[in-house]
Amino acid sequence: MMAGWLVLxxxxxxxxxxxxxxxxxPDPTLNIIYPKPEREHELDNWYPLALLKLxxxxxxxxxxxxxxxxxxxxxxxxxxEQGELVNVxxxxxxxxxxxxxxxxxIPIYKGLYGWRLLLTTKDKLHLFEPLKxxxxxxxxxxxxxxxxxxxxxxxxxxxxxxTSTSYESLYNMLIKGRGDAFPRSILEIDWExxxxxxxxxxxxxxxxxxxxxxxxxxFVNSQRDDLHNAIQTGLEKAYQNxxxxxxxxxxxxxxxxxxxLADKEIIKLENKHLPRLxxxxxxxxxxxxxxxxxxx
Length: 296
Prior knowledge:
This protein is of the alpha/beta class and 296 residues long. It is 32% helix and 21% strand. α1 (47-59) crosses α9 (225-240) and α1 packs antiparallel against α10. The two termini are 14 Å apart.
């Protein structure tokens, strides 16, 4: 078995989704509710949902899966703390989030959300041509979501950052010249450019990429050991039999190739918010350009 994986030998005890059960008998079905995305076009072809289903299918537990109402990430996290409208969320980890919620410490995107290409407007591309270091980039202005862990990571590394609460307003800030660059994961940038290319002059900076260690996990309410154990068990089994990597490759191999990381200056940043228990030493869980083995 791969080093670093937990071996679960005890049977999982399954409790009802709500604490107000009508009797003391355990409910054999896990009723899982995830936050409906802001952008509904994602729902039919959504990697984290596909991976969650894969994990649940491998967990050995009966389950139901449904979406809640539409909500932004900050609302979803607040609702997860209550454990009623939603009981599972996927989000970038941080020390603060792991203190409030129960993480399944298997990075579902293999750290690729820490590989950030820069979106800018075509009339500002010339600003980036001579830039090869973090010190040079710090002279420019970046835009990010107000509650994103990435925002604090950039600020901690000395970058100038303006924030907003929605994707649409962040793009408007960039288009209206209220920011020079919008860092986006290599997993997001292709389809976002496709949506924007016909109506706006937004493009990718071709010569640099930011990189910092970052993990997106499934999180559950701190009291829901049953959900935590089921999802973790399922992810481990899917990883061991290759289905995790097959799914990941099916969704993202092309985006990784499109990023052309070999042609870019990699600017390494520090992530002070990475929790101590992040499995950074388990190299099998993380993507690097040198070890791009998605199907292994």
